Structure formats: structure tokens, C-alpha cells
Amino acid sequence: MRILDKKIVGSRALLVFDEGKEVEIDREVYLEKGLYAKDEIDQKELEEVLFESGLKSAKKMLVSYIQRYPLKSEYGYYKYLLSRGYDSATALKAVAYFVNSGYIDEMEAAKKLVNKYQKKKSSFEILQLLRKNGFKSSTISKLNLKPENDKEILVKLLQKKLRRVNKKDSKEILKIIKWFVSRGYDYNTVVEKIREFLDY
């Protein structure tokens, strides 16, 4: 394909081809590939240049997103790039670049999330949160989630919830039991603690 015209506008370069086709690429890629000195380019080389340009743009976008949201999984960053219009190959390559350079550390992010929620949520809720946010099973399995903390959290939450409950209102107590069980607390432990608090 013959290149009829080349223009640099800000951080982008515009190439105009003989069929009237126009292509916009990153200025740095334009200079690195030496396109300013070429009058012709084949389709394969153009596709490589477009991929490199898209990758460079994806990396720039991902850097600012990582700085704003450091506690995401690799999949979370990948999904963000897809939502911004990048194709799968570009998104994967950009995320892999930051993983290899150590800028994205999924294990570290998962540990920080666990520490953040360890005193507020049950280990089951934390696992659900990690899965929902796209953390890999291999990462989750390496975490040291302590179910012992669940009892402490259970006691604190039960104290709050049982303050407003009438001892004789079995429907309300059943609702509380269901609420805790749905969040991953052991049924027998919940019932035992309720009996302790309400002197059943």
C-alpha cells in the first residue's frame, strides 16, 4: 500500500493511503518504526504497527487506572481495557506487561483486600468478594484466611442485632439466623451464640 501523506498532530500520526484509507497511530510508534521515511507499507506491517500503537495506548490508560484502583485482579484490569474498546489480544498483552514488570501483583492485592475486610466480613464473604473481583483460584488458595476471626465478628454483629429483638419473637430470631448463614457463618455456631446471648 502506497502512503500518500503523513502528518503528526500532537501525540498521534496520520497516514493517508492511495485508496483514500486513513490510519491514525501513536506518534512514538510512528517514529520507532521509521514510517516517516517509508513511501510504501504492506498489510502485515501495517497491522503490526496498529497493534503496537494500540498496545502503547492501552498501557498508558492502564497506568492511570492502576494508580487509582491498586486492589484489582489481573482479570479486573483486563476487563477494564475491554470496556474501553481494546481488543482481547491488546488487553492481555498490556496486563501481562505490567504483571511481568511487577506493577500488577495479584497476590499482594488479594492480601491487602483480606486485611482490609478481615475484621468486618466472614472468611466466606471475603472469598466471595475475591471471586467476584476476578482473582484466580490459585491466588485465593494461597491466602491464609482464618475462620477463627469469624467467631469474633459473629459475636460483635450478634450483639448489635439482638439488642432490638424480643426473646419471644421466633420469626425475628430465625431471620437473624438466616442472615448469618447466608454470609457463610456456621449454623450451629450461630444458634449456640444466640442461645448464649438470649439465655435460652
Automatic annotation (TrEMBL):
<dbReference type="InterPro" id="IPR036388">
    <property type="entry name" value="WH-like_DNA-bd_sf"/>
</dbReference>
<protein>
    <recommendedName>
        <fullName>Regulatory protein RecX</fullName>
    </recommendedName>
</protein>
